Amino acid sequence: MAGVKRIVIRPASSNWPGGRAACIAAILLAALLLAGCDGPQSALDPAGGEARRVATLFYVMVTGAAVLWVAVIGLAVYAAVIRPHPHPERYANRLILWGGAVGPTLILAALLTYGLGLMPSLRAPGGDLRIAITGEQYWWRIAYRVPGEETVVMSANELRLPAGARVELTLDSTDVIHSLWIPAIAGKMDMIPGRTTRLALEPERPGVYRGVCAEFCGPSHTLMAFSVVVMAPDAFAEWLRREAGPAVAADAGADAAGRELFLAHGCGACHTVRGTEAAGTVGPDLTHLGDRRSIAAGILENTQANRGRFIVDPAGVKPGVEMPAFGMLPAAEVAAIAEWLGRLE
Ligand code: CUA
After folding, report:
1. What would the pLDDT profile of 71-114 be if each residue is shown by its tens digit?
2. Average pLDDT over residues 192-214
3. CATH number, domain with residue 327
4. Which ligand 1 atom lies nearest to the CA of residue 137?
């Protein structure tokens, strides 16, 4: 092996000046990455049956990958540092056969079999409650149907679920392909125009989670989100009963100004507020808007100022939105409409 230089890799010694800083940086980076693993939109902080199985699959896959990585790096260190001499050819051939072909085939086949084995339970249809969700540019039309009951309860942009139940979502779209994803509760599912797809949810832990659109659908794709409120079953039943009714404040005398302006400016051509003449179906149902945590599909906090801001300049909040701007209205009228909408509980 004349002329071949031996390459020696030395581990970083403690007197290497950058060593400690690099170590601290690595620990901080790991802490930051791990801190991102919980929260309302994390698939690694599961609050539903499917998300829990997906998280387990992730950890099994990561463990498998880590074992393979350690084995490969171990061999590389062995060959480069511990025994940097030529090895007999018959060992090399054996290593290639077992380490390069048989081993990876067995490990990948085992991981694939495990992953495929999870799929039937992830996609089985049926449930205690059916919810139809339609993707729109850029919001979510939501219809609750309790099996055995005729009533369909229309809502928008906030999904409420009973903990411990199995809920079947039927998904479609009116315009382009969207994708519904609530990472903490389940995997994602495409919403395809002209086709119905299904997703089973098994929310387990009451709390507030975040869902998003996971398929590029236009300029406001990233501004298409929603809250998911998982409630105790009794609280959910009570909420659904109220949600089915007309808006509580819709007819109250004190709210007449905002309501009259809402109807006079033609808002009812696109929006429904049950309990008033507003029965449009182009835009989101606003019957219980005051009850929702956010407006504009999970983008703005549901405050009077934000409702007013969206009425005046919807495209400024959400580029590409179909709602026309009402910037020509006097500020006092906008405020009255925004105030009334906030009372619709
Ligand atoms: Cu809807 Cu992206």
Report:
1. 889 988 988 898 888 878 888 888 889 888 898 899 889 988 98
2. 94
3. 2.60.40.420
4. 1
> Which pLDDT band holds residue 39 (cuts at 50, 70, 90)?
confident
Q: Which domain holds residue 156?
A: 129-243
Distance 80 CA to ligand 1 centre (A): 50
What's the pLDDT at 255? 58
Residue length of the chain: 345
Q: Does residue 292 sit in the same domain as residue 313?
A: yes
Residues 190 and 268 in one domain: no
CA 215 to ligand 1: nearest atom? 2
Instruction: Note whether residue 84 is domain-resident.
Output: yes
Is the Cβ atom of 211 under 6 angstroms away from ligand 1? no
Q: Is 187 in the pocket of ligand 1 (CB under 6 A)?
A: no
Tell which of 70, 88, 122 closes a domain: 122
Digit-coded pLDDT (tens) for 126-143: 778 899 999 999 999 999
Report the domain count for the chain: 3
* Mean pLDDT of all residues in 262-291: 91
- Please give the model's pTM, rounded to 2 decimal places: 0.81
Query: Do 257 and 303 sit in the same domain of this protein?
Result: yes
pLDDT of residue 13: 45
In a domain, 37, yes or no: no
Whether the CB of 215 sits within 6 Å of ligand 1: yes
